[in-house]
Amino acid sequence: MTTVSKYNRPTRFPDLPVRGPTGNELIQVERAKASFDVNSLSKFIYGEEYLAKQDKIVPILESEPVFDKSRRYFQGRDEKIRDAWKKDKRFLELAQKHNWDSKDQNIAHALYDQTSPYHLHYIMFVPTLEGQCNEEQRKLFLEPSKRDEIIGCYAQTELGHGSNIRGLETTATYIPETNEFEIHSPYLSSAKWWIGALGRTANYAIIMARLIIHGVEYGPHTFCAQIRSLEDHTPLPGLIIGDIGPKMGYNTVDNGFMMFDHFRIPHISMLAKYAQVKPGSGEYVKPVNSKLSYGGMVHVRASIVSETGRALARSSTVAVRYAAVRRQFYDVTTPRKWGDETIETSVIDYTMVQYRLLPVIANAYALMFTGKEMLRLYHLNIEAMKQGNFGILADLHATSSGLKSLTSFMAVEGIEECRRSCGGHGYSMFSGLGHFYNDYLPTMTVEGDNNMIYQQTSRYLLKTYRDVVAGTAQPSEHNLTLTYLAQYMQNPKAKCPAATATEFLNPEVILTAFGFRAAAGIAKVAEQIDNQGRSWNDALVDLHRISRAHCQYFIVRTFFVALQHATDEGLGMAERKVLQTVASLFALHLMEKDLSDFVLCNYLSPEQLDMIKQQVQELLKIIRPDAVALVDAFAIPDYMLNSALGRYDGNAYVALTKMAEQEPLNQTQVVDAYEACIKPMREYALKNRKDLSKL
Amino acid sequence: MAGGGFDNNVPTKFPKLSVKWPKGSDHLKAERAKATFNVDAVSKFVFGDDYLNRVKKIVPILESEPAFEKTQRYYQSRYQRIAHAYEKDKRMVELAEEFKWDDEDKRIVNVLYDQVSPYSLHYLMFIPTLRNQCNEEQRELFYERAIRNEIIGCYAQTELGHGSNVQGLETTATYIPETNEFELHSPHLTSSKWWIGSLAKTANHAAVMARLIIHGKDYGPHPFCVQIRSMEDHRPLSGVTVGDIGPKFGYVTIDNGFLMFDHYRVPHISFLAKFAQIKPGSGEYVKPANARLSYGTMVLSRANIVNGSGTTLARGATVAVRYSAVRRQFVDSNEPRKWNNQVIETPVIDYTMQQYRIFSTVATVYALLFTGRKMIQLYHLNQKEMENGNLGLLADLHATSSGLKSLVSTITIEALEDCRRACGGHGFSLFSGLGYAYQDYLPLVTFEGDNYLLTQQTARYLLKTYRSVVSGKAEPNEHNLTITYLTEYLKSPTAAMPVSTGAELLNPEILLTAFGYRAAYGITQLIEQIDNQGRSWNSVLVDINRVSRSHSAYVIVHNFFAALQQASKTELAVPERKVLQTMAYLFALHMMEKDMTEFLISDYITSTQAKLIREQTLELIAQIRPNAVSLVDAFALPDYYLASALGRYDGDVYESLVDFVEKEPLNQTIVIDSYEKYIKPFVYAGLKRQKNESKL
Lengths: 695, 696
What we know:
Chain A is α+β, with helices and mostly antiparallel strands. In chain A, about 55% of the residues lie in helices and about 10% in strands. In chain A, the strands form four sheets. In chain A, strands 1, 2, 3, 5, 6 and 9 form a six-stranded mixed sheet that branches. In chain A, helix 15 packs antiparallel against helix 16. The radius of gyration of chain A is 29 Å and the shape is globular. The two termini of chain A are about 35 Å apart. Among the domains of chain B are: about 120-290, Butyryl-CoA Dehydrogenase, subunit A, domain 2 (Beta Barrel), CATH 2.40.110; about 300-475 and about 505-635, Butyryl-CoA Dehydrogenase, subunit A, domain 3, CATH 1.20.140. Chain B is about 55% helix and about 10% strand. Chain B has helices at about 25-35, 40-45, 50-65, 80-100, 105-115, 120-135, 135-145, 295-325, 350-385, 395-420, 435-440, 450-470, 480-490, 510-530, 540-565, 575-595, 595-600, 605-625, 630-635, 640, 655-660, 675-695; strands at about 155, 170-175, 180-185, 195, 205-215, 215-225, 240-245, 255-260, 265, 275-280, 285, 335-340, 340-345. Chain B is globular, with a radius of gyration of 29 Å. Classes of the chains: A alpha+beta, B alpha+beta. The interface between A and B is large, with 152 and 151 residues.
């Protein structure tokens, strides 16, 4: 140890410039090419209020040591989670100091971009109490939870059960003698598992358990109970609680497990806004209307869809900016000039890179508009339900399931495609996309596993189809399913009328194609299940296809419709034009990926397939000069990106070296393992050599 | 720390409860009883006895060695993992001697241990480079000392601003005639060597690629072998700046480094002189004789990638299939699953969507393993031919190996991640064993030729071959499949697939012809655009990628069917042959289904046939269902390798998850130390606010 100590000084790069032109020079050239005004487009997407709030909050976070992000990529899980607790405490203080409202707080969370142990308290525990407490329980649980006096989690899934809530094993048996419930885990597989904030943080929990009264089973119900001492934080007797260990991402949350050994809780613990158990007699009073809870699910899913748009915006920002800066090979046929000098071509000029990246930009815009539309429909539906009108709910709920599944899948694929398109440096954590991918992944599983919930959509689509066939469906302007099904039934042998590639730029033509393809798929599966006796399980692959087709229709339509109204909402002509092109690229690229679906229903001919492929290439060419400006319009600050490659100023290589200087291994000249392992290995080799020479 | 009044240092333990029946191991036993074939026989056919015996011999050794323990890695930070990796590398040298491991044994050890280490690149790149590029004097000075580990090296080629384009490297090596030295220099920040494995903290030597400059003339990149650290105390030599490039998505146990030179002088002998040479004093440059020889090595390394991909994906498939057989979800009301007359939830392996996802991956694994094997055979064949001066095989083999590396690693990475996702929520836990696997496999998509760039090499060759077939200059050869399918296509370019029922698709001839037709059609379209419509290379890159993919898909499908056809009856008995044949059909149809649009655009298949392909795929999946677990058992991957709670051979996944969780560092105390500092104040702030509010 002592022999190396004199070299304990950090490694620094020499003060050299990058080989010119610099990233900054290259990206400025890109910005000069834009055909539209970036700020106008940002305002159109987010509104001025959001952007102003963001501008106000970023400098605050940047100046707070606890919110510093530079250590994040070097830390192990243990250090990370400790920092997260620290940050949560400071967050509270900042929110008070700057009078942040809930919008401000959401923006600050989004910018900090790392989930924390308390996150589940706010997004699951408090909302569940809001939704399920009776008056007494609101005072007892909800109000203290809002003041952070009690910190809670939401304990539903178990070691052996995730999506199937009806299969949960934990029991809650009513004990009339003491007017208590006894919560119990009969098997190892009954352990509550994956519960965020439970592992080491929460002192309360919402617990889903099978209600048993006088030996009769009533299925899963909701309980709220204290689980740790408010004095010294130790788990209460009868409970075993811990952390479920390291995950691929999300490591700043203490996802936990909990087992109950005949754990008694008072009668008041059963959340009683809907179902109730009468004290003493144990009489069970049924909930009135369970439909109401669907509204909440729609909201959560609409938020997820909005998030998917932002996730793609972020990853395409990094990938597109770096693609403009990163140069690779001299293109002999069309050499890139810088002044008089030939330079290597920026990778964004290669058509393959454009084909990979520009559709991600288009997806980002499409999903942002879709998220907005879902939130609008959510509020519309809430109003309608208040008037006793449940007409929108079924379609909205079904569409939200399929959309959650489809869009979170699109986001995950897009993030990873962006990371890979950054080449070797994309694999460095400093790209900012590796961590992000890992943290984003659970979106595909939570709030309804993507591989399950599409079935809700499919079930609804089949039901609607049957209604339309039977003539019992009631048309509504908000129900697009009925619209495209009715159109299909008028002429199930219709063909796409496009005769040239440019005709595929017509929104009407595209939308009709997506509607026809969805309807034809639904009709086919309905026929198989209803008339040919095909089982549900047997048809799952096709059921997945129709959910996907339906949701794609919804997204494509939403994008086009948003642009139709855009000029009324103050979008300039230049901005509208570029978005129109982006919308066409979005729709045609989506079509290109699923072309066989369109051919199998005999709607498109092989010649038309070729036209679509050509048109996609054309659109890429048109969008190319606007690529950097289109991601700039996403207005994502460098603080949020935390990426060497995606910086606004384009100086990717300088940033990489600055970040590398902070690597812990670079803080000494010689690594500790030298004395313990490296040196002995060499001595061993030298000794062997001597032994050999003696022979 | 926390509160006091109780002993906080009590690890959390689970109660001694069983899981809800049936246990995972009950499920897997039932699955194994359904197999229609002998698992060991398939393992032997695929891997050979020698390999299986070596694995059996080595696994218990590694399992009993603390330095080779694998569960810690899930809890450790990068810094801890890298420290552990050094220990393991030291122990590896000792074990190799103790057990007299040969190169194949050592390769197997590395596969089983399944984690790169700081010394990896010394063995994988430094030594092979010296082996190929040293002259006699240099062999003794560098190569022989390197194989004895007296010097430890790395291979420093890529730079901060340059990866795939070797011609664009910025580091210079200027010959100084006065002293007969070279001066290595990094003129810009972007010239820094970057991503160099084993460089940051381990290597004391480096093979450096730098632009050779003699008397002001630039001769392009050449290799040098130079010392970079003191042999006394390991500090970097003066004129050298070296360090670690920081954390990565995976591969964290290797010290990928950067290296900058400040007018750093090295002696004349440093220039690796087997091929090009520089005369001392005069500085006269002597050109290398034949550069083609190095292509052979590239073919081998790509063949190894294909093989390795098969093993990695086998791991994904093993975990996903076994866990799917154990994991139950929902009672299927149409066809309720019974266990001893009681209805249980249905194992997810019985849902067709799950089957559709994971069975095609099982088939893909077999396809990759057979293609890897075939490539290695062809590599050896080609080496022999080249020794006899026959370069006839090389071009096709090299081009195909580029396309295959690209397609295979693309398929593997997608399917591997899908296997992890098919494990539902628990797939996200590192204890699935698939999270690290994905992160560590990823670099294969970029290195040894970026996957997108590589397809250009293949396409260039395919276009050239097409032109020579058309002009009648191509010489047919049993090993050149390109000429075979192009010739067939040119005989009848308007052919259509002669299939009217799903069953007719189950014919190797029919399927192979379809893949050949589609590949050839794509090539003709590309030729039309480039040769007749004057399209630039850049403007058709998307189609270039498609053509390479089609060609490579043909090769993999061909190799799968051929491997089964060529197997004798003793090598492969009827039940084993039957199940592998089904695998081959599933693989081919699955690949067709994925790229259906291309088959449709070429007019070789109709939309009705496309429907048949979809239906037949589902048919095959149903046939495979009873053999699913046995088909992954035949991959013969030991639990030590899998390091997975979900993929264990015995199926007791939940018990295993619980064991892993008890080792989590956060579970070693009852109350976390952050409680006093951060959690308690948080709660008290709430209480205080309430008091303040109530005062108002």
